[in-house]
């Protein structure tokens, strides 16, 4: 569980990031690329982006030898250039101490990391080129969608804050959390962690790629930034190229996406097969896979088998309550 402790001053210094921040969103996406969970929805997305990433982005992996990134990468910035400039402006002693921290477990240190530790300009150029290559491949194609999603999240937060107050706005950002006695409790975080704001305030930053627990930027002398998973919960697809069904097909496969969309009403296996133009055996096999993922249910009445979407399946298919 994560417990965030507010002082009275902190409660007046909670703000919602007015626009998405490219560098944290990029890092969230790169973390999701390496995360093992939610393979059903993110497996194809990971495979596609992993194949598309150019070799120039490879050095970024050297910055997380044990899965934890150095804190000098924790910046905001309203544009990509602002974010990269903030990283480059990190104090040399801070960069050195953070590289030493992430490599404290031993193991070989790549030459360019040693050069970055020494402040060499060439190493900074390596990092800059790697981040730009990753941004162009991973984030640039979906950045307009990230902006739209952020505006929607900002509006929901503002309305909840105005209608129901700060406590409701905070807990709405994290279903299952609660605010009591000045402590915001987030369940589901593997280890108990107490985070004390001590008057620095809190910035809420939705992220639309990361699907794990909250990501915390906690640096001395700065407001704490809490990046929390928001948005549709599916890999983001670029705008302008296709429909919701096209995007879903990239995750589930064309036939299974079509099957899920076809079940806007209950259908038998034969009815599904006819709707999709496949054999009964093929329709049954795909239905079994979606059923195992919790997206559809199957019931038998006499000799007939009927399939229908679960609430989760309806949400994934794009239905809205």
From TrEMBL:
Keywords: DNA-binding, Transcription, Transcription regulation
Coiled-coil positions: none
Residues covered by the HTH arsR-type domain: 247-320
Keyword Transcription: yes
Record keyword RNA-binding present: no
PANTHER family noted in UniProt: ARSENICAL RESISTANCE OPERON REPRESSOR ARSR-RELATED, HTH-TYPE TRANSCRIPTIONAL REGULATOR KMTR
Record protein name field: ArsR/SmtB family transcription factor
